[in-house]
Design a protein that fits this description.
Strand order of the largest sheet: 3-2-1-4-5-6-7-8
Number of helices: 11
Bound molecules: acetoacetyl-coenzyme A
Number of strands: 8
Mean pLDDT: 97
Oligomer: single chain
CATH topology of the largest domain: Rossmann fold
Structural class: alpha/beta
């Protein structure tokens, strides 16, 4: 028996559209929800492009790509989530925004529906507390690009039940992913380790130890990273990196997590990486 039959994904940005794609690709009826039609249209194009790319590479057949696309419906009406067995939220990283959405979703979904947040660092326990079903609430942290990256970090909140965790682990496997279970502490495992690495790489540039290009070369050639830490920071978004460093600093109360002043300054200047056209590197198109 499949872990779930119907998934609603809230938030159709890079992560939400990727999650909807892998959900539909594993045979699940998937609803992608956002507040604006333009955002949903963009998501549809992103998904189509990704599926075409996979078909071209032979990773899937063209027919599989078409079937996957057909399994996704797009809507601006959040009440369309009411029949979902699982709701996955992938909206931007603000606890108050997430809590407000979850309160709404909690009121309209069936009582046995499970809830998952794709947050990259906000406490699952804190978000779950906005609902009346914290035992059915869990973290499902996907990685960008979602169709490619194998990991799903499965985060157990303080009240997440064993049954919820087991079903989500099963689901992640059915999606072709490799789930890794972790506990709910700031940054979980992925960003607790990755972000201080990126932040330290930014300090190396800030202090003039090396250029961004040289720092990246060290990691690509010396540690076989597919992208150097500053290219990766641009890929993730410098605002996201800063936000996660602040979560780590506040959550642990340890000054070793202080964000580099250069990171703060670049974010203040609107240099957010790929999405704004400039970060440590310049991007066109
Ligand atoms: N959809 C489908 N397929 C895609 C894709 C997409 N959106 N993006 C890339 N691919 C596929 C390509 O078709 C290609 O397939 P083959 O191997 O079959 O040829 C493969 O992925 C590699 O892509 P490219 O050849 O275009 O480029 P690349 O070799 O430079 O790889 C990359 C691109 C996969 C992004 C690679 O650079 C990489 O792994 N980078 C690191 C990514 C990473 O660390 N992500 C995690 C970020 S942290 C995060 O997401 C969470 C957080 O909380 C901050």
């Amino acid at each position: 028996m499949p872990a779930v039959e119907r998934i609603a994904v809230i938030g159709s940005g890079t992560m939400g559209s990727g999650i909807a794609q892998v959900s539909a690709a594993s045979g699940i009826e998937t609803i992608l929800i956002d507040t604006g039609k333009a955002q949903l249209e963009k998501a549809r194009n992103t998904i189509d492009t990704s599926l075409q790319r996979m078909a071209k590479k032979g990773a899937i057949t063209e027919a599989q790509g078409i079937e996957t696309a057909k399994r996704i419906s797009f809507t601006i009406d959040i009440t369309d989530a009411e029949d979902a067995d699982l709701v996955i939220e992938a909206v931007f990283e603000r606890e108050d925004v997430k809590r407000e959405i979850w309160q709404k979703v909690d009121a309209l979904c069936k009582p046995e529906a499970m809830f998952a947040s794709n947050t990259s660092s906000i406490s699952i326990t804190a978000i779950a507390a906005a609902t009346k079903r914290p035992e059915l609430f869990i973290g499902m942290h996907f990685f960008n690009p979602v169709p490619v990256m194998k990991l799903v970090e499965v985060i157990r909140g303080n009240k997440t039940s064993d049954a919820t965790c087991a079903k989500i682990v099963q689901l992640a496997k059915e999606m072709g992913k490799s789930p890794v279970e972790v506990k709910d502490y700031p940054g979980f495992v992925s960003n607790r380790v990755l972000m201080p690495l990126i932040n330290e790489a930014i300090f190396a540039v800030y202090e003039g130890v090396a250029t961004a290009e040289s720092v990246d070369e060290v990691f690509k050639l010396g540690m076989a990273h597919p992208m150097g830490p500053l290219t990766l920071a641009d890929f993730i978004g410098l605002d996201v990196c800063l936000n996660i460093m602040e979560v780590l600093q506040t959550g642990f109360g340890d000054p070793k997590y202080r964000p580099c002043p250069l990171l703060k300054q670049m974010v203040a200047a609107g240099k957010l990486g790929r999405k704004s056209g400039e970060g440590f590197y310049k991007y066109q198109g």
